[in-house]
Amino acid sequence: xxxxxxxxxxxAYSTVADIETLEARLNLLIDETVAPTxxxxxxxxxxxxxxxxxxxxxxxxPAAEGRLLERGIALIAxxxxxxxxxxxxxxLPVTKAAxxxxxxNDPKLYRSxxxxxxxxxxxxxxPDLLILNRRTEVAHLVDVKRSLGSYEVSRIAELKNRMLAAxxxxxDLLYKEHRRLQAKEVRVVILNAxxxxxxxxxxxxxxxxxxxxxxxxxxxxxxxxLRHLFETRIELNWNDALQDHRDAKVTDxxxxxxxxxxxxxxxNAQPAVPPEMAGRGASRPPIQIGFAQAPRxxxx
Length: 300
Prior knowledge:
Elements lengths: L14 E2 L2 H16 L5 H10 L1 H27 L5 E4 L5 E3 L1 H9 L2 H4 L12 E3 L3 E5 L4 E8 L7 H15 L2 H8 L7 E8 L11 E3 L3 H5 L1 E2 L1 H50 L32
Parallel strand pairs: 1-9, 6-7, 7-8
Antiparallel strand pairs: 2-5, 3-4, 5-6
Helix pairs in contact: 1-3, 1-9, 2-3, 2-9, 3-9, 4-6
């Protein structure tokens, strides 16, 4: 029995993400994410190949989930007509000047600054998503993490500084390369799907706060449901692959036993009797076979 929770208050935002309405599109995202690396057939092949292939394919699970999260967020963001969502290979330069500016100053002092997007540099940053709200002219540079459990504090701080330095070129980039889009402020946010180690003031948000970022009611709930569907699909594919692998082994054992029995039967088989000899042995004395003997001498 499915329990449907009725909301007792009006939605915080005019745009609402409805799970039932989005179900088919969410399942399609999962299909497209799972098929290249985590299908039942690929998992079954890995089980047959051995531990090395199993390890490789299991490592693909976090990467696949990360891609799914990015596409899921972009899908929900598309419901809000005020938002422009940029994905793909957005390589933003991270110059030495921008890095020093971020490391040596409070964000309030450079929040309104914008650097030339054409400025080169050996370092760069590629965001998972760049989301611009055309109504508020606020852009968000988004980095999606499946989990921050293995991240040290210093590593998170380094990531945030790199994102802030890259954010300085975003207004110029949007204006020059994306049809004169205007951004008067750029904010960075790390979305953590596991909802642990959050720092709302410091730009580390749980995925459950996606409603506020996208201004879409129930966005966080839909993403939680998407993760559940993904985990269920992977578990189903894994169990199917295991069952297929067991069935194949049983078939192989049965075939080996059949061949063994056939070989044993061949070894124990009696010599074949020619058709013309069949049925004669029952009424005749035993036949003796040996060497020819010389005739005995006649008695005197």
